Amino acid sequence: MTTHHRYLDLYPVDPTAKAIIIGTIHPHDHTKFVMDFFYGSQCSLWNIFAEIFPDHMTRPTSREAVSQFLADHHITMSDTIRTCNRKNNTALDKDLIPRLYNTALVSQLRDSQIEQVFFTSGIGKNNALRTFYTGVLGYKYLPGAVAKNKTGMLPSDILGRSIAYTVLYSPATTANRGIRNGKEFKKLRHLFANYSDAAHGYKIYLYKAAFRNLVAG
Fold first, then answer.
1. In what order do the strands lie in the sheet with 151-154?
2. Could you confirm whether domain 2-215 is CATH 1.10.1040.10?
């Protein structure tokens, strides 16, 4: 099956935003989405924000409420893949076969006021950070320093200025298995004993640290 991105042209990057959230591509069957928008399949990202910032986002939420939240806090959205095939009918990055990358992101970032990029997956097969470098930017290989760090600076020679990036775990619950295997999570697991799923608690902790200056600052 072939998936064509539904939202990149409907909701283009806001050049006045301070931050951007970048993923890969939405699941194939948008008719089953809870919300017809980025991360609308299960509203995983928006539920995380509602949990972290209840004064700024309600749950359940709507596309209008999400759009207002993003505008209020100068956040915009995009993805790295415009068109893909899928090995299996799943939403997993590893099952994607990218056909067309969202190379417009280069000029959109260059011509914006964006200072911070948040990738919702890292360097695994077809993950957001990896496909940004090897697909959008056209790198043959992922730079070693990028592969080793969850934070850093994107290449100013291509984007025209320094833009910081942070890699987050996917907001989807499927990412929780990987979180449970991580060394940092195991060190801090005791802090999230009050959650039914400590991995979810750790994810909340990371997202709050990443976005609190934008939302609550």
1. 75-79, 19-23, 116-119, 163-167, 151-154
2. no
